[in-house]
Design brief:
There is one protein chain. The protein is α+β, with helices and mostly antiparallel strands. The chain has a domain of about 100 residues. It contains five helices and two strands. It has a two-stranded antiparallel sheet. A hairpin with a 5-residue loop joins strand 1 and strand 2. The model has no long low-confidence stretch (mean pLDDT about 80).
């Protein structure tokens, strides 16, 4: 995107790119990379289809931004914060709220079940044949929410201390 940076190969499919503008503005540029088996000519008249964005309430959004901040910072190989780390940060951000590890776990479980029932594109439930829960379920949830632009980098503003 800039002459002084190296090229970054993009996978086939939809990729959101956030570009910082003036006055703290951030612009979303949506790219679609077609594969070798698709038409080579540009599809100028093709309709742009926005990704499916998933509904989250304010507490869910805050919780998922805290857990998934590394994804929103586009770190290489991001992993979610632990429930303990999230609880510590949430107590700091919202001192009056009841953010314990168990409550966080229950809220995430409820979100996973709801989005799974709604057709979420990544696996969000345990495969009972595999012998128990997968550590990747929270990763799948966060990856899917970022890929769908349900969670976007400007959501990181929720991590700012309101009293500061």
């Amino acid at each position: 995107m800039h002459a002084t940076t190296e090229a970054v190969p993009l996978a086939e499919g939809y990729t959101p790119v956030f570009v910082r503008g003036s006055s703290y503005r951030e612009h979303l540029v949506e790219l679609y990379v077609s594969g070798h088996d698709e038409e080579r000519s540009p599809r100028r008249r093709a309709e742009t289809l926005p990704p499916k964005r998933w509904s989250l309430d304010d507490d869910e959004r805050l919780l998922l931004v805290v857990l998934g901040q590394r994804y929103l910072l586009y770190e290489e190989g991001p992993r979610p914060l632990s429930y303990r780390q999230a609880a510590e940060q949430l107590v700091y951000l919202r001192p009056g709220a009841d953010w314990r590890e168990r409550r966080i776990e229950n809220r995430i479980e409820a979100v996973r079940r709801r989005l799974h029932a709604g057709g979420f594109p990544y696996p969000l439930t345990h495969d009972r044949r595999a012998g128990g829960p997968s550590d990747n379920l929270l990763h799948n949830l966060l990856r899917g929410l970022v890929d769908s632009t349900t969670l976007v980098p400007p959501d990181l503003d929720l991590l700012e201390d309101d009293d500061g």
